[in-house]
């Protein structure tokens, strides 16, 4: 922290003459091309410093230093503290999509629409919507995205004579068959620990939990669409054909590895998780698109993913925006993001420039990234609000209770609890909330 | 003049540290608890949020939060399990060690004390693994002999599961405190009792326990305060189960408000309430037991 502060101060002192220019044609960073600028970049993606080396080598006047963070939540907590303190924030910051409205509301990230130029066509609509909040401003450039995918144990499916489910009805039927043939096996689990996972499933069904209506926010966490999703899972948990234990526990890891969890509704980054937790099952997993509510109109949701934003404390907005744009759109950079930093780049052309080989854990599935690209293309738009954190922590509590009780009716009621907590928090803070 | 200033010079380091690291944060927390952020409209962009005075609004919200009272009751129930069990075990072990019946006294003392040296977070992770049925060797062994162990993290057992970690970690410390007090008792008391025909058990009940009363009061007070501040154990176990909510204890609610909801103002208010309650309960307890705790010499 101290180091960061010191370097930011140093940069500020040395470069007080730096002018923020809004005129940025592609290769000239600022008014004075000989001027040297040092930028700091907070990111938690592995090997991001190696990706940035490519930029530093070709841009001697804009040197970027990566400052490794622990993860999305601690990085945001640190950034918000720096914003409140008035100094200490980096120039560039990795920010998860669901955190962007919170950061915008705290005036922590800058609008770089003018500096970045028109990039809309380069990204999927859902990612673009997340960084613009549906307006004219641009609060970051999409870096990676997490289209949801269905992972399953093809050996178990073959043995049980189960086809890959195309609809949620088929998924439920498959869950029943698998659990009946072997009562120890489950096709999946309902996790009260992963609000982002459930948000993705609701997004697929067509929900958008927040929205902007004129000058006020709308909150629709307990709307009919999300209720449909909750009731569906509540029914399966009550029936006992889907497990009710949270994901990402030693228990869940063991279940993936010993073949009692035989399916996972994960996202494109899932192979890394499976490889780490269930290494001994390599070669037995396959992937497919998520089951659908309407087989005729396939849709998808997003779980995870982040953008690269310029903070409001940056003294070099133009240069920072140029770096952010390069990082997420330049073919070489996108390739490095995928190959070195191991993220799934959000850029539309990532599949053709960077992702020609399937991940090692899925070497038996050469079309892995073709499926991922399809999953990304059909991802529905979803708007996050300024208090996602409140809704998500309320999700943990409300669905924890519901999952423990194993009563279908409690799942729908849990949504009412979350809705109430979320709207209550917005109103209490003074936001205008419609309805 | 020089001699007059000397005491203050000696006191200065302590006073400065006290002011900087205890008094100032308390005052700042008190100040924050009376403030709040006011957002206008959509709350997006610069100047959309301002900090304003909130009066006692944060306190009112804290106390009327539907999660607050259950979390207080939960900690009460937790304390009713932890404090008697932990102090009971500590007392029995201290008496046994003191009775000198065992040759392995030093080893036993160290091994009972050792869990206290394990940080609460590590201890909770260790116990977490032992609680989760699929990875627990205990459940495995019980399974082999035909007993189906209950799920330790299910709603009917989770309170005991958390209490067990605290008992495991805290017994050793309290045992050492009580044992040290027992060693300080003059041996002529026991000799006199033996001559009068008292048995070991009678000596323990009639002499040892009353004499170490002040130490018992102190350990009780420490345990009480630790109970009110229970945080690390449930916080570490939370992601492993459905049954521990983000507001399971009052301190977890403070954490959630401050670092998950970014609402340091109501977190500050809840902290002040917890601090005040801790003070009232500890002070009330000391009043209740009179001055015994601090008057060993009389």
Automatic annotation (TrEMBL), chain A:
Keywords: Cell membrane, Lipoprotein, Membrane, Palmitate, Signal. SUPFAM superfamilies: Periplasmic binding protein-like II. Residues 1-21 form the signal peptide. Gene3D superfamilies: Periplasmic binding protein-like II. This is Extracellular solute-binding protein. It comes from Paractinoplanes ovalisporus.
Automatic annotation (TrEMBL), chain B:
It is found in: Cell membrane. Pfam families: BPD_transp_1. PROSITE patterns: ABC_TM1. CDD domains: TM_PBP2. InterPro entries: MetI-like, MetI-like_sf, UgpAE/MalFG_permease. Residues 72-285 form the ABC transmembrane type-1 domain. The chain crosses the membrane at residues 75-100, 112-132, 157-182, 211-232, 264-286. It is a multi-pass membrane protein. Coiled coil: none annotated. Keywords: Cell membrane, Membrane, Transmembrane, Transmembrane helix, Transport. PANTHER family: BLL4140 PROTEIN, DIACETYLCHITOBIOSE UPTAKE SYSTEM PERMEASE PROTEIN DASB. Belongs to the binding-protein-dependent transport system permease family. This is Sugar ABC transporter permease.
């Amino acid at each position: 922290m101290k180091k960061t502060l010191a370097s930011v101060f140093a940069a500020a002192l040395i470069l007080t003459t730096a002018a923020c220019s809004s005129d940025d044609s592609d290769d000239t960073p600022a008014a004075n091309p000989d001027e040297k600028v040092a930028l700091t970049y907070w990111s938690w993606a592995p090997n991001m410093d190696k990706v940035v080396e490519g930029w530093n080598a070709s841009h001697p006047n804009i040197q970027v230093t990566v400052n490794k963070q622990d993860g999305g939540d601690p990085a945001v907590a640190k950034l918000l503290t720096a914003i409140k303190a008035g100094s200490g924030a980096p120039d560039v910051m990795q920010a998860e999509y669901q955190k962007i409205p919170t950061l915008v509301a705290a005036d922590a990230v800058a609008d770089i629409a003018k500096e970045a130029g028109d990039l809309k066509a380069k990204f999927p609509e859902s990612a673009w919507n997340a960084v613009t909040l549906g307006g004219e401003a641009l609060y970051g450039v999409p870096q990676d995205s997490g289209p949801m995918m269905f992972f399953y144990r093809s050996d178990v499916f073959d043995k049980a004579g189960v086809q890959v489910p195309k609809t949620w009805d088929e998924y439920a039927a498959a869950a029943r068959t698998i659990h009946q043939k072997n009562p120890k096996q489950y096709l999946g689990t309902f996790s009260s620990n992963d609000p982002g996972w459930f948000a993705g499933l609701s997004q697929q069904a067509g929900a958008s939990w927040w929205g902007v209506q004129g000058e006020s926010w709308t909150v629709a966490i307990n709307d009919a669409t999300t209720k449909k999703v909750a009731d569906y899972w509540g029914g399966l948990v009550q029936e006992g054909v889907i497990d009710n234990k949270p994901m990402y526990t030693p228990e869940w890891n063991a279940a993936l590895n010993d073949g009692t969890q035989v399916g996972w509704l994960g996202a494109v980054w899932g192979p890394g998780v499976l490889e780490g937790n269930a290494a001994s099952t390599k070669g037995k997993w396959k992937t497919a698109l998520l089951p659908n509510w309407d087989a005729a109109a396939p849709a998808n949701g997003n779980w995870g993913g982040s953008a690269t934003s310029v903070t409001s404390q940056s003294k070099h907005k133009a240069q920072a925006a140029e770096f952010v744009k390069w990082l997420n759109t330049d073919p070489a950079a996108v390739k490095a993001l995928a190959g070195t930093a191991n993220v799934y780049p959000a850029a539309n052309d990532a599949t053709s420039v960077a992702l020609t080989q399937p991940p090692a854990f899925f070497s038996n599935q050469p079309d892995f990234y073709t499926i991922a690209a399809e999953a990304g293309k059909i991802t529905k738009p979803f708007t996050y609000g300024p208090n996602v954190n409140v809704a998500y922590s309320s999700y943990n509590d409300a669905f924890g209770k519901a999952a423990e009780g194993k009563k279908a009716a409690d799942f729908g009621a849990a949504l009412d609890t979350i809705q109430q907590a979320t709207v209550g928090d917005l109103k209490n803070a003074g936001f205008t909330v419609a309805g | 003049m020089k001699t007059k200033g000397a005491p203050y010079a000696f006191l200065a380091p302590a006073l400065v540290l006290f002011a900087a690291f205890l008094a100032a944060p308390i005052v700042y927390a008190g100040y924050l608890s009376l403030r709040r952020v006011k957002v206008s409209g959509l709350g997006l962009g610069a100047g959309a949020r301002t900090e304003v005075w909130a009066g006692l609004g944060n306190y009112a919200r804290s106390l009327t939060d539907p999660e607050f009272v259950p979390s207080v009751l939960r900690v009460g129930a937790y304390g009713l399990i932890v404090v008697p069990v932990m102090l009971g075990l500590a007392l029995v072990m201290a008496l046994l060690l003191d009775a000198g019946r065992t040759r392995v006294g030093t080893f036993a003392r160290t091994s009972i004390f050792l869990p206290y040296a394990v940080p609460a977070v590590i201890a909770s992770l260790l116990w977490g693994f032992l609680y989760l049925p699929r990875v627990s060797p205990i459940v495995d062994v019980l399974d082999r002999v035909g007993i189906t162990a209950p799920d330790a993290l299910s709603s009917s057992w989770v309170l005991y599961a958390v209490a067990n970690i605290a008992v495991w970690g805290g017994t050793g410390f309290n045992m050492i405190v009580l044992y040290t007090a027992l060693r300080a008792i003059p041996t002529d008391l026991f000799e006199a009792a033996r001559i009068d025909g008292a048995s070991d058990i009678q000596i323990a009940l009639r002499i040892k326990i009353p004499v170490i009363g002040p130490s018992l009061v102190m350990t009780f007070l420490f345990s009480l305060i630790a109970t009110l501040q229970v945080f690390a154990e449930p916080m570490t176990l939370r992601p492993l189960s459905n049954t521990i909510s983000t507001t399971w204890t009052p301190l977890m609610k403070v954490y959630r408000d401050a670092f998950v909801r970014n609402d340091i103002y109501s977190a500050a208010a809840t902290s002040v309430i917890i601090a005040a309650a801790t003070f009232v309960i500890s002070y009330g307890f000391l009043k209740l037991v009179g001055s015994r705790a601090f008057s060993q010499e009389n």
